[in-house]
Design goal:
The structure is a single chain. The N terminus is likely disordered. The chain is of the alpha/beta class and 389 residues long. It is built from nine helices and twelve strands. The radius of gyration is 27 Å and the shape is elongated. It has a six-stranded mixed beta sheet. A four-stranded parallel beta sheet has the order 4-3-5-6, with helices on both faces.
Amino acid sequence: MSITKKSKLKIIRDSIPHHTRLKLWVKSAGRCEFSGCNKPVWRNDLTLSDGNFGEVVHIIGASKKGPRGNEESEGLQTEFSNLMLMCQQCHKEIDDNPDRYPTKLLSQWKKNHEERIEIQTRYPEDIHKSTVLLFSVNIGERATSINPEAYRNAMFPRFPADEKEISIAKDDFNGHSDIEYWQAFAGDIRRKIKWHFEEGIDGKKIKHLSVFAIGPMPLLMYLGKCIGDAVSADLYQKHRNIADTNHIWSWSKEEQDTETRYIVNSIRINKKGRNVVIVLSLSGKIDSNRYQGLVSENFSIYEITIEEPSIHFLKSRKQLEGFSREYRKLLNKIQATHGDSCQISIIPAVPAPMAVECGRVLLPKSDPEIFVYEYDDSQDRFRRVLKIN
């Protein structure tokens, strides 16, 4: 480009007013608006020294010949709606690859980022936050982990999160151990939950929980029993078919009104018998040959299922709420039919939050004894591993 053309470009390009730059910093909370970056640009990440390390980016280029430039470039040079705040690396990324980052995408990122900041800062001081409960126990040899960015995205914008969370984690749990081993670990869960409920977080009482849990179903049910309904709680599901790992715990916005028809089958009823089995065939179909050897002819057997059991079926809170109602109704029916002294065995194939909900809906002093079975892949059968209440 000639010196004449450079001079002409400088004359055409207007200076962004101070109040517009200030508005951009405030609206972005001083963080890079490139989706997924969110880096604070008021400090140097390496030296941690304070300073202005942000760059003002044009969505539609400042000139027609610049990245994403068009006929509107000159008129939008100083318009707030056409400006983003980014770190140096992200600014270079979008300008070096304008086809990969078109104006429509950048405008949506700006909108999402600034709306998120607005929602987060809109809360009055006295609103309660949600305490994050992370429960992570290995399933067989498969280790589990919960990404902090993913669980915060899942909570947004319903609740701001407490800075500290409750964490119960074990990556060497031996699921093949006997019932005493399972019961001992369950005791650890109970003590930790009880202590946090009594002591709170930094001395403040827990008012709401956001529960992110992965682990063997019997332990998840026991966790739910320890939580109970004394504290309001939101349960979240890890979605296996989500490509973006930062959103795998988020309930689908498209599926938020999805409801499921739960089918309750009375497979065998013996009103004189006190032993009852509940088969939960939801994330997979449990064939009767996998539990028939565990029960005798005097056992009553009930089942909750859906038309097409699948590990991917749970997509909305409404589905979880619907299951909770049907499960509680079945417990009431069993107690009315078989008496208060009956004993219930649960054989589960359910998504994690439903397992937690199975424990949460239990009534501490009035529900019958409940035992939970775990599938033993080495023997291709279920076995009793834990007493819930």
